[in-house]
Structure formats: structure tokens, C-alpha cells
């Protein structure tokens, strides 16, 4: 019994001495203390990327976040640009070329129809372009960016419930559409040899719009003629149309 007790006491004394050891002395007799390890929790996707780029987890994580955010913005921009093409098509076709319930009861929509279908197409039914006019006299050729921004606010508010990025992008798409419309529409009807007038993309859009003035029930898109091709309202140019385009140097 005494032997067992002595063995137990010796084991306890060895264990207590091991845990009661003082820090080992370093240079000049100063003790060396181990520094606590700091562990940074990295998201799963960043940990997967960090396996490929060993030693740079934080940088890779930051870059992956930027790429992911940029991808979301591009996806929203692409989807909303396509929707804007169909919205442009329907507004141009249903509100600017036809009288309807809204135009018969609201002055705003009645003016929209008169300015476009009667004044604009009445002026450019026989000629596609004429001399430039002074600023302020081209209202029937332009869209108000300010009005477009305000009209898109309800849609942006609804999108904000789902995605803040989508709400911001929808305003950017609407304002960018109106800006491009104003620039190319003025150059089509009031040419001033703007810097983009020789671009193939502009000439394609100008030919598309030229056919709209020859055939007012076709080619309703101006900026992005995707909806015309999807909905079947595009028209092919005849020989006389091609001759007119050639005289205007649109070919």
C-alpha cells in the first residue's frame, strides 16, 4: 500500500512540475513567451480560392468579391437592357403611333402622340434629314432624361426590395437609353457629322430608323432593335429604300 501511494505521489509531483515550469530564459536573461495565434475565418468560396493561391487568402478573397459584384452588375445591365428594348418598342408603337385609352383622357399622352405621329412623322415623311436647328427647337426629336429618371423611380423602388444593384442599374439603363436616343436621333434627322456618324453600328441603326419613316408600322426600335426582330415588326429594305439609303450615305 505504501508503495502504491509513493508511486502516485511521484507521478503527481512530476505532472505538477511540468505545468509549473517557468518560461525559458532568452537573451540577456529575458524569458521567451509564446505569442498567441490569431486565426482569421475566411468564407468557403475564398478558402477554395486560397488553395489555388497559397499565401494570399485575403487578397484573393477581396478580388473574388470584386469579380462577383461586377458579374452581378453586368448581369443586371444585360437583363434590363433587353427589357428596355421591349419597353421602347411598346411605348413607341402603342403610345406614340396610336390613339388609345390614355391619349383620349390624359393630356400628357395626347401630346406625346401628336408630337411624334403628327408633327415628327409629318415633317420627315418625305425627307429623312434636313438642316440642323438651334438648341431648344428640337424638342420633338429628343427625350427628356430627367423625365425618364423620374418615370423609372417606381420600378427602381420595387427592384430595391429584391436587389439594390438592380434598382441602381435600372435608372442607369433608362438614362443611358435616353441619352443615346437623343444623340443618334438628332444625327439621323439633323446631321452635323458627329464623331460617331461613320461608325457601322450607327449606320445600321440609321438604316433601321430610315425604314421606320418609310413604313411607320414597322421598325419601332431606335436604340436597341432587338424587340423588332423578336416580335416580327422588322422589315427588309426594298430596292427603292436601298437607293434612298445610298443617297444619304447610310450604306
Model description:
With 251 residues, the protein is mainly α. It has a domain at 84-247. 64% of the residues lie in helices and 0% in strands. It has eleven helices and no strands. The protein has helices spanning 2-19, 44-52, 57-95, 101-105, 107-123, 145-151, 153-162, 164-189, 200-214, 226-231, 239-247. Helix 6 packs antiparallel against helix 8 (164-189) and helix 7 (153-162) packs antiparallel against helix 8 (164-189). The longest helix has 39 residues, at 57-95. The model is unreliable at 14-20 and 47-54 (pLDDT under 50).
Task: Summarize this entry quickly.
The protein is mainly alpha-helical and 251 residues long. The protein is built from eleven helices and no strands.
Mean pLDDT: 82
Output the number of helix runs: 11
According to DSSP, the number of beta strands is 0
Strand content bin: under 5%
Order of helices and strands: HHHHHHHHHHH
Q: Could you give a short account of the major beta sheet?
A: none
Q: Helix coverage percent of residues?
A: 55-70%
Taken from the alpha-carbon principal axes, the silhouette is globular
Q: In terms of structural class, how would the helical and strand content be classed?
A: mainly alpha
Low-confidence stretches: 14-20, 47-54
Task: Report the C-alpha radius of gyration, rounded.
Answer: 35 Å
How far apart are the first and last residues' alpha carbons, in Å? 113 Å
